[in-house]
Amino acid sequence: MRKQVILLPGDGVGREIMEGAKAVLNTIAGEYNHEFIVHEHAIGGDAIDRYDTPLPEQTVKACENADAILLGAVGGPKWDGMPAGKRPEKGLLGIRKSLGLFANLRPVQGFGPLVHASPLKTELVDGCDILIVRELTGGLYFGKPSGRSADGEEVVDTLRYTRKEIERIVEKGFEAAQMRSGKLTSVDKANVLESSRMWREVVEEKAKDYPDVTVEHQLVDSAAMKLITNPKQFDVIVTENLFGDILSDEASVLTGSLGMLPSASLRTDGVGLYEPVHGSAPDIAGEGVVNPLGMILSTAMMLKYSFGMEEEAAEIERAVKECLEDGYHTRDLDVQGGKVVGTDEMIKRIVENLSTKSISNAICSSYM
Ligand SMILES: NC(=O)C1=CN([C@@H]2O[C@H](COP(=O)(O)OP(=O)(O)OC[C@H]3O[C@@H](n4cnc5c(N)ncnc54)[C@H](O)[C@@H]3O)[C@@H](O)[C@H]2O)C=CC1
Ligand SMILES: CC(C)CC(=O)C(=O)O
Ligand SMILES: [Mg+2]
Which ligand is nearest to the CA of 95? Predict the structure, then answer.
């Protein structure tokens, strides 16, 4: 298969983890006779420095013509003082919006060898398998008006959703629940927010089309508590943009590290942007210690969701699992008796595992 992939390394640790994505893509191409035509473009702070904008036109054009996009991370203290419209994060929000990537899938699936790496009790964490379906192109991050008054003493952000925007993401949630255990938890703040009341209304309406799915509503504040005190009650969670952003970082604790979580940002035609859930981690950038697994697992999601390469995706997941079973991990993971390695070594070991593939043993993941 021949596919065009755009790489957007971005800022901070973005470039370091992108090396992991490139290495596994190269290996998969060789092992399976695929051709990945890869081009790199600027986004975020890197683009501000080079082109004076967080989202250059040539980046958008390249992404529009691609089969899929891999993104590292954007942002960092260097650009924190920039005006709102010119911050690195605007680049990421802009590419999601301009490509119409409204459905953000964030699987939270623990790996057996990391079950003791979570600060939570092992019995709570063991066997956890959650999919967060987050709305990605609406809500507070995009609503207008947004800004500061002329005297600087008043600020406004707007939480706006249309019924259609809610309907399409809720449908994604139901579809995911149907393909998994048939349980959907919709998370909102319907006791306070009008947008959440419409959200709940839509979920109730849509539930009639999916009689095989059991639906539950939870308010976001207590859902945040239950996510770490009784995580196994959740299977698919569907929620709006800001809540999904926060809950997914919280849920990463179940896996042992924020560095473990991958994500897919999708629309309806198979084109997608794939990135780890974490940010640019400026506190460790350049030290060679960042965990590349969230990025590598995002690459596996790309192969599966955008290219239909289920077996290749499963191979990457197997290579990651075997590496962890062999005791290798980066220093963000607290594994007793494990062997701490740097980013490059972790990538090298995964590539080695991939090259000696045992495809007959590959087990497909159950994100959806
Ligand atoms: N998708 C994106 O590009 C995102 C960008 N950001 C941006 O990233 C910058 C830093 O934000 P933070 O709140 O610090 O969040 P962060 O996710 O970058 O880091 C939070 C903590 O987790 C650690 N961490 C994150 N990923 C890791 C990995 N792969 N391996 C090991 N440790 C890891 C970091 O070292 C840090 O201590 C900000 O400018 C923010 O706007 C934040 C979230 C998402
Ligand atoms: C950096 C933001 C634009 C978003 C974020 O934190 C995320 O998508 O996880
Ligand atoms: Mg986030």
Answer: 2
